[in-house]
Amino acid sequence: MNRISVLIPAYNAAPYIAEALRSVIDQTRPPDEIIVVDDGSTDDTATIARTFAPHVRVVRQVNQGIAATRNRAVALASGDVIAFLDADDRWTPRKLALQLDALVAQPAPSLIFGHVRQFISPELPPEQQQRIACPVQPQPGYLPGAMTATRQTFASIGAFGAWRSGEFIDWYARARDLNIHTVMLDEIVLERRLHPASHTARQRQTLHDYAHILKAALDRKRS
After folding, report:
1. Which of 45, 63, 103, 115 is buried most, with the most CB atoms less than 10 Å from its CB?
2. CB of 27 within 8 A of CB of 97?
3. What is the pLDDT of residue 193?
4. Angle between helices 167-177 and 66-76 (to 10 degrees)
């Protein structure tokens, strides 16, 4: 395993994507490629991402949603190790180094996760910040941005399902069904930004889709 592909799905992330990309480029173990798939943004997301060339490859598509965008990024990747980052979050500097070390130490294909520290986006006015609940302590990060996986492991689980939200919940449930070996590192690898567009709206839609995702998981077990 000697090539790491970092995959960043992006939609209207102009205020944050530069910070996300800088956190990837500044890794102590730099990735071998960084791919941003712009999902039909109407702001300057793609333009800002292109300023990071030649480190970053930017691909634009008509808006298709988060699951299709993640899948497109995987299809474009050339690495045998893949890592995701949402365009409004950021990594800690040793994220890739820590997880790659853990990945090659495992005797079987595995998913390597780390802890996540959440923060309220500092540009928000005080009244908006007060409406966002932000955990004080780091938490186990069962999130795409806190994970690194071999391409082989990802392929064995399959592509993200066509959910409007909660696509990773469904994907990870399928990984559990297959008894994929999972490792949770003690270190913080992801800093997750909380703001109205990413937090409240996503949480509401995820709750809406979760019942259907849970039913799909139960149907798989019955079959």
Report:
1. 45
2. yes
3. 95
4. 60
**Total of domains in the chain:** 1
Give the CATH number for residue 60.
3.90.550.10
pLDDT at 199: 41
Among candidates 157, 5, 188, 171, which has minimal Cα distance to 90? 188
Show the domain range for 138. 4-222
% of the chain exceeding 90 in pLDDT: 74
pLDDT of residue 204: 54
**CA 14 to CA 2: how far, in whole Å?**
31
Residue 166 banded pLDDT, cuts 50, 70, 90: confident
CA distance 162 to 199: 20
Q: 3-state SS of the chain: helix, strand, coil percent to 5?
A: 40, 25, 35
Residue type, 79: G
For 166, counting Cβ atoms within 10 Å of its Cβ (0-12 exposed, 13-18 middle, 19+ buried), the class is buried
Residue 50 has pLDDT above 70, yes or no: yes
